[in-house]
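Continued from yesterday's entry.
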Amino acid sequence: MAAAASHPAGTLGLVRSMSSRSRAVLLLQVFTVTLFLVPSDTVFKPIGAGGYVAGLIGMFGFAALLTVTLLGLHNPLRQRHPIRAALCLLWLSVLASYVLMDRNELTVPELASADRLLMQLAVITGVALLAADFLGSLSDVRRVLRVLCWGGAFCGLVAALQFWLSLDLSVYLRELPGFSLNVNDIGIATRGDLNRVSGTAIYPIELGVVAGMLMPLAVYLAIYDMKRSARRRWAPVGLIALAIPASVSRSAVLSVAVALGVLVMLMPAPQRLVAILALPFGLAGVFMTAPGLIGTLTSFFEAGTGDSSVAYRVSDYPLVERFLEQAPWFGRGGGTYIPDPGLNVLDNQFLKTSIELGLVGVVALTAFFLVPAVSALVARRRSRDPELRLLCAALAGAALAASVCSFTFDSFSYPMFTGLYALVIGLIGAVWRLAVAEAPAAVRAESGTTAPGPVTARKLQPAGG
């Protein structure tokens, strides 16, 4: 610190980088709040479906990031993490498909949808790179995660009121001045003899998958955010968990099973034992509050192709094959597959991408899902800090849950899912940088050249001009 003080330019750079980190944290917190509090079918009409509140904030973040990069105030080449490569590959496949698509064969809504995909990618990129490049410490990450988990908890509370009391607060959250409802909300639907609800998401499957992805992050924060009381740390875990049965969705069960399974498997032995012992009681508590839920979900899993939703998925394979024969490499254009309501809804992001972006797009999408998950696992292996290791495990669980569930629903059609996934991969980029910076700090500590202490206490600074 004394060295920085003796050099005015160094001090100015330090102050500027600290300010950049603070603004990035605040912007990500605002994005998270709007993502979970304002349903994404509430849009700014002149923009259309891409004009939901969190999307507008994400696009602002993308524009701000692009501006500071072009002005030389941020050097992305100094920020080493694998997330940027995964984003670049997806961008290249989408842009290639956008350039090569035959516009004479596409309708006006299909062309508009292709433009919306570019807007969606801008939101994902802005959120992911703001987190990956500008969150420079575990403290920064925790500040974002606190807001994220409480946002998920609010969504879970809305879902619980819909499910158990048939009270829908989301209708009031959609009444924003200057915004309009983009689609007819399904409200409180039924499945079996149960209410099937969406909270502040736009569909029950999205609610369930998002809740499953949030669970390991909420558990991590409850364990390590020790500046807060136990009640404040564990309340979000319980409220998020309520959204899983309320969605009455097989994808929700799959999501939470993968996400928590990865977390528990990678926990230290004492924590793993406690988690395994507590899990049955938690599941019993949740499902006992919803009589008939276990039987309903069991019947859905056992139905196989006899279930209508599974039958629809299977029957769409020949349709996908026909589209692939017409444009095998780059598809018919990103975002251009718009099925008739209730007909040929693929409920599989990989199949949808194969139609729109071709085989090249499927490879890019696979990398977009797998690279972050693998990066989180590699960062965990490189780190010695128990907190950072558990955070990496939680993020890997969330990313893998998103990957697996993208086979069970068209995940890119749901803004809450894409927004959460963008933040998850951005946080993976941040923990990657922390783990990489930890290694030389640990070597210096072992050699006696630095004072001993938690190596992750060292804060990373965003690259300046």
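--- second protein ---
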Amino acid sequence: MQVMAGAPVGGAEAFFERLVVGLQKRPIKQRVVLRSYDDRVRRLRNAGLEPTILKFGGFFDVSTRYKLERLVDQDRPQIVLTWMNRATAACPIPTPKRRFVFVARLGGYYNLKYYRRCDHLVANTHGIRRYLIEQGWAPDRVHYLPNFVDAPRASHEPAQSSEQGMRRIFAAGRLHENKGFDVLIRALSLIDDAYLEIAGVGPLERSLRALAEEVGVADRVRWLGWVETPVDHCQAAEVFVCASRHEPLGNVIVEAWAAGCPVVATSAQGPTELISDGVDGRLVPIDDHVGLAEAIKEVLSQQSFAQAIAAAGRRRFLESFTEEAVVDQYMRFFEEITP
């Protein structure tokens, strides 16, 4: 049983869908419990699943807790895998009469008060796993299992790589302070021959648009909103940029690698773990728009360097972040933790 009480869109939510669909192709029976978001429900139904819908209204939502408990008692799953705080808090406690292995998957440096009842924790980066162990969790109960991303669609034809002679920069993420889009917009003001596509929604959209006007690049920023397949936009771009101040993983870096797109990123937790500077991407200091601009210009102006780091990133994707490789790891993990 997999339980997700997340938002309509988001990185964890997108990977949840990919993993559920990937596991559906394997010899495993799963029930998927989630909130009633029409697009997510439709996509899972198209993959052959029939999700169970619960409200997940928060601490005082007694009905969801009761219904989830009834589902566990009815299905008697060997494993219950919860995603993030709310779903984990709503999960019933294993008892001698209600036996299952309680696993929670974490994609960030969360407050661990919600996870005390879990038997095992899954971290999607080595850094998060180290954090969990530092917080007192036994190493044999904390497991690193990476995310995977979809490869670009074979039929996808990249758009023209220029717009009135300008180079294409792509970035994606929630429009939040942690993602550093303000730094990227300031960096764009130092790059004369490029425009920026930003895929994402969030609370800072209005202020970021105002900043683009303030620094004189509003006519060179394209606001795409939430996109379902960032990998296709990466394939059409000449450089992908992650300007985050705080980034536990950075799924879209892996998506850029999958698309064969060179990556420039700040030295946040996730990018630093993923990228070897100058080998499969470029790393720059956090909150340094001048350094970010210089790194972007380096990639745009040095074709052989851009091709080399893009090719190395593509190899990293094929080695470690494909659906087959990661679902294999999850299947082995499930076998290890069940009697």
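The first strand starts at residue 2 and ends at 4. Residues 155-161 have pLDDT under 50 and may be disordered. Will compare against the first tomorrow.
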